[in-house]
Amino acid sequence: MLTAMATITFPIPSTTTSRFAVAARSVPHDLNALLRRSPTSYQPHIAGRLGSPQLQATRDDLTSLHWDPTRIRAHRPEDRLAARFFNNATEFAVITAFAPITDQPRGVQVARSAAYAIAKATDGITADLVTGQILTPTPEREHFVLADHWIGDALPPFRANGRCTAPEPELDPEGVNGCTCVRLRTRGLSRFGLPELQMTEVACPHDLAALNVLRTTARRLLTDHWSWLATGPTANTRTIPSTLHLTQTDFDAFWGSARHTHLTPTAPFEITLAHPKPRLLTVSPPTTFNGTTNDWLWGDTLPLGIYDVIKAHPTLLHPAA
Fold first, then answer.
1. How far is it, in rounded angstroms, from Cα 25 to Cα 23?
2. Could you tell me the superkingdom of the organism this chain comes from (predicted)?
3. Rounded distance, CA 95 to CA 250, Å?
4. Where in the chain is the domain with CATH 3.30.1400?
5. What is the DSSP letter of 107?
6. H helical segments located in the chain
7. How far apart are CA 82 and CA 135, in angstroms?
8. HSE toward the beta carbon, residue 110, CA cutoff 13 A
9. Under 8 Å CB-to-CB from 211, ≥6 apart: which residues?
10. Exposed end of the chain (fewer CB within 10 Å): N or C?
């Protein structure tokens, strides 16, 4: 007898909002004029959208803000000085993109390119108000790569800033499940019309593997989502299988590169999705796996790069023109 495939259904917004901010010592009042003369490869897109809901640039100061600059964080040590400047700033340019999900990812790329242009012109610091993180201004490349700081994929402090004393798995077999300190959640998939992803009860030594599983899942869901949107659906919900089979190719696609592809393709690995909240999906091992999430992350079913790739080489994220 055939068994019905388990599925999950989540809401699909017709439009999404993405916002970026630039903190500077002095922000011009006429940001539209600044953007119209800023040289960038996205200039035609910026000019065509500027002043519409798809691209709005406004000047704010501390008397008019409806968001808190002190909540912006540095996800890398080298961004801490920039974050401090942003947190203490008094003048900001805020770039808002309110667009149909069928306009993504171009809509958010145009908005972020506009933010980078303002930052360059004002010697300012850019932040993504969706992910809550400082951004390093770089030319927005034409093709979309999820690894270009789109989903706030930062690791929490390892070993809970020294509070966790669980043994290392290499030294003590019980260390595989020695703690459950780590909780990971994406921030940024919502702007593409997808729920965010979460993994919980992860042991400190497996945090990078868990993060890369989330990254791989995010890229696969986004690829499938854009293929679904291309069919012109009219429904305001979408139903997908709760079981996904991911591959090394999905992991490579997150980075926008085949740099990590093995000569012999690795076997697909399976994940299970659950839907505890309307805008959240949880990621866990396959239902047939006999063990904990940490047993699964420490095992040998995941592609090798998932265990050691924390970031792409700079030439992969932003190759020379």
1. 7
2. Bacteria
3. 31
4. 15-135
5. H
6. 31-36, 43-49, 80-88, 106-122, 159-162, 207-229, 248-255, 293-298, 314-317
7. 9
8. 26
9. 153, 155, 184
10. N
Placement of tokens 């610091």 in the chain: 125
CB atoms within 10 A of CB 144: 17
Asked if 147 contacts 256 with a C-beta cutoff of 8 angstroms, the reply is: yes
Tell me whether the omega of the peptide bond preceding residue 105 falls within 30 degrees of 0, making it cis. yes
Q: Amino acid letter at 241?
A: P
256: left (phi over 0), alpha (psi -120 to 50) or beta: left
Whose tokens are 């020695």? That residue is 178
Enumerate residues 6+ apart whose C-beta is below 8 A from 94.
Answer: 19, 20, 21, 22, 57, 58, 59, 60, 129
Exposure string for 81-106, b = 16+ CB within 10 A, e = fewer: ebbeebbebebbbbbbbbbebebbbb
Average pLDDT, the chain: 91
Tokens linked to 92: 């900001």
The DSSP call for residue 13 is: -
Q: How far is CA 253 from CA 5, 26, 135, 225, 297, in A?
A: 27, 39, 21, 15, 20
Sequence-separated contacts (24+) of 208-211 with Cβ below 8 Å: 208/155, 208/306, 208/307, 208/308, 208/310, 209/297, 209/298, 209/302, 209/306, 209/307, 210/182, 210/184, 210/293, 210/297, 211/153, 211/155, 211/184
Whole-angstrom Cα Rg for the chain: 21
* Least reliable range by pLDDT among 90-94, 255-259, 297-301: 255-259
Query: Can you tell me the mean pLDDT for 58-85?
Result: 94
Q: Residue 50 corresponds to which tokens in the numbers above?
A: 């500027």
Strands 196-202 and 280-284: parallel
Domain 15-135 fold is: Cell Division Protein Zipa; Chain: A, (3.30.1400)
